[in-house]
Amino acid sequence: MAYAVVASFSGASKTTVPIGSVDYDVYEFASTGGGTITFSAGGDVDHLIVAGGGPGGGNIGAGGGAGGMLDGLSTVTAIEYTVTVGAGGAGVNNGAGTNGGNSSFNSITSTGGGAGAGSTSVSPTTGGSGGGGGGYGSALLGASGTSGQGSAGGNGFAGGFQKGACGGGGGKNAVGQDAVFANAGDGGNGMASSITGSSVVYAGGGGGAGFDIPAGDEGLGGTGGGGDGMSGTDYPVAGAAGTNGLGGGGGGGSRGDGFGGNGGNGVVILRVASPVVPVAGINYWNGTAWVEKPLKYWTGSAWVAKPLKRWNGTAWV
């Protein structure tokens, strides 16, 4: 099927990019709340749908899971569609925050990222990608992700009063890293998409924090907008936020009631082939649609090629 034709839109930015020999119109919905898009003709639409990332845990927190990520080709009809963009989950200073918000288009929904574990015994939550497990008080398993959208969070490590470390949040392309002794887990890496014409990595998990781990051993955010976790040497310090527009998970907050980093907002990107603009002398209106002028004409008995020259009475010119 041919690409759909866009009649109007709201809440998005539009750019036109050449990819190979074809020009494409790209509609990027990056503001939470989303917008609408109306098609004047049905057809195919390339889509990338990334949900809001989950927050890191607070007060010795694990990394938040990335927002779920779905890409592919869907079919639309000539009606208006609502586009929803999920906000990143909010971190708290003691425990697990709220999951990231869902993003959706055309009945396709990506699930918000799960929150990282926090405090001494607050478990992580499941999501598009799962939050990482805690490591202080008791080693908690990382939470699971949603099949096809993301990965599980890494496990925490309970190594004694001063050596607890938390796992990284899951990313689209990889599970969160497990914590080992005094090394917190990195967030799982995200996945690249070239729907905009350039390769961009989305949906990385947040890094974990630890009780008394030294600087340099905190978990780093995964590629695709994951926020870094905090060490235990300076406190209280909030975990780094996930990147807005990429759906990254937030980093884990330090001890002393450090807030978990907020998850990054999601994004919905839609792409269609740019409509062909009729050119006078090349296309003509047949009463229904613009069509190419024939390269041959009817002599009364046969179709023959139109001459590329004309007779001026003396010569072909």
Descriptors for this entry?
mainly beta; 317 residues; five-stranded antiparallel beta sheet
Tell me what you see in this structure.
With 317 residues, this protein is mainly β. The chain has one domain. 0% of the residues lie in helices and 25% in strands. It is built from no helices and 16 strands. It has a five-stranded antiparallel β-sheet with strand order 1-4-7-8-9, with no helix packed on it. A five-stranded antiparallel β-sheet has the order 2-3-12-5-6, with no helix packed on it. Strands 10-11 form a two-stranded antiparallel ribbon. It is elongated. The model has no long low-confidence stretch (mean pLDDT 89).
Terminal residue distance: 44 Å
- Taken from the alpha-carbon principal axes, the silhouette is elongated
Total of DSSP H or I helical runs spanning 4+ residues: 0
Provide the gyration radius in Å: 26 Å
| Percent helix | under 10%
Tell me the fraction of residues in β-strands, as a range: 25-35%
- Biggest β-sheet: strands ordered side by side in the sheet: 1-4-7-8-9
Instruction: Detail the poorly predicted runs.
Output: none
Order of helices and strands: EEEEEEEEEEEEEEEE
> Structural class, from secondary structure content?
mainly beta
* Main sheet properties: 5 strands, antiparallel
Annotation, overall tally of beta strands: 16
Mean pLDDT: 89
Total of domains: 1
